[in-house]
C-alpha cells in the first residue's frame, strides 16, 4: 500500500533550512528570519511589501517566503504552473528566486519543500560546500 506523502508545514521551512550545513539564521530588520550560507541568503521571510498583494482584496501578504533558485529556467518551471503555490512579482524580475506564501506551504509535500530548499542552499553555497554536500547526498 502506497503511503501518502506528508504535507509540508511552516515549521519544516525552518527545520530544513537550518539543517543544511554551515547555515546561520539572522534576523531581518523586522525580526523576520533569514537563513544564510557563507553570508548569502538562500531562504528568507519577507515583511509585508506593496509588490505582493491579494488580487481580490489588495491586502499585502504578510507571510511571503523568498527561496533562491539555481536558474531562470528553474524559476519559470516553478511559477508557470497555475496550480503551484510558487509565484513571483515584477520586483523579482531577473532575480533568481521564487516566492511562496507560508499559508500555502501545505500544498507541497515535505519532500518537495525539502528539495526546493536544498536547491536554494546549493545555489548560494560555495562551490566546495556544494560539491561536498552533493557527494554526501547523491541524487536518487
Your description of this structure?
The protein is an alpha+beta fold and 140 residues long. It has one domain. Helices cover 31% and strands 20% of the residues. The chain is built from four helices and six strands; from the N terminus they run αββββαββαα. It has helices at residues 10-19, 72-79, 110-124, 127-136; strands at 23-27, 33-37, 40-45, 64-68, 86-87, 97-101. A six-stranded antiparallel beta sheet has the order 1-2-3-4-6-5. A hairpin with a 5-residue loop joins strand 1 and strand 2 (33-37). The protein is globular, with a radius of gyration of 15 Å. The two termini are 21 Å apart. The model has no long low-confidence stretch (mean pLDDT 91).
Keywords:
six-stranded antiparallel β-sheet; 140 residues; 6 strands; alpha+beta; 4 helices; 31% helix
Topology record:
Layout: H1 10-19, E1 23-27, E2 33-37, E3 40-45, E4 64-68, H2 72-79, E5 86-87, E6 97-101, H3 110-124, H4 127-136
Antiparallel strand pairs: 1-2, 2-3, 3-4, 4-6, 5-6
Helix pairs in contact: 1-3
Tally of DSSP helical segments: 4
Ends distance: 21 Å
Q: Order of SSEs, N→C?
A: HEEEEHEEHH
Q: How are strands sequenced across the largest beta sheet?
A: 1-2-3-4-6-5
Biggest sheet statistics: 6 strands, antiparallel
- Any idea what the radius of gyration is? 15 Å
Enumerate the spans where pLDDT stays under 50 for 5 or more consecutive residues. none
Total E-strand runs: 6
Summarize the structure.
The protein has 140 residues and is of the alpha+beta class. It contains four helices and six strands, in the order αββββαββαα.
Amino acid at each position: 500500500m502506497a503511503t501518502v506523502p506528508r504535507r509540508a508545514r511552516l515549521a519544516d521551512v525552518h527545520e530544513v533550512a537550518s539543517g543544511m550545513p554551515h547555515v546561520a539564521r539572522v534576523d531581518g530588520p523586522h525580526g523576520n528570519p533569514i537563513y544564510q550560507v557563507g553570508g548569502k541568503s538562500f531562504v528568507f521571510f519577507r515583511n509585508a511589501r506593496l509588490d505582493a498583494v491579494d488580487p481580490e482584496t489588495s491586502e499585502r501578504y504578510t507571510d511571503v517566503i523568498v527561496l533562491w533558485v539555481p536558474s531562470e529556467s528553474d524559476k519559470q518551471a516553478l511559477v508557470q504552473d497555475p496550480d503551484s503555490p510558487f509565484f513571483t512579482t515584477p520586483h523579482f524580475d531577473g532575480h533568481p528566486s521564487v516566492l511562496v506564501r507560508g499559508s500555502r506551504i501545505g500544498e507541497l509535500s515535505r519532500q518537495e519543500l525539502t528539495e526546493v530548499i536544498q536547491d536554494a542552499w546549493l545555489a548560494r553555497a560555495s562551490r566546495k560546500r556544494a560539491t561536498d554536500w552533493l557527494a554526501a547526498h547523491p541524487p536518487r
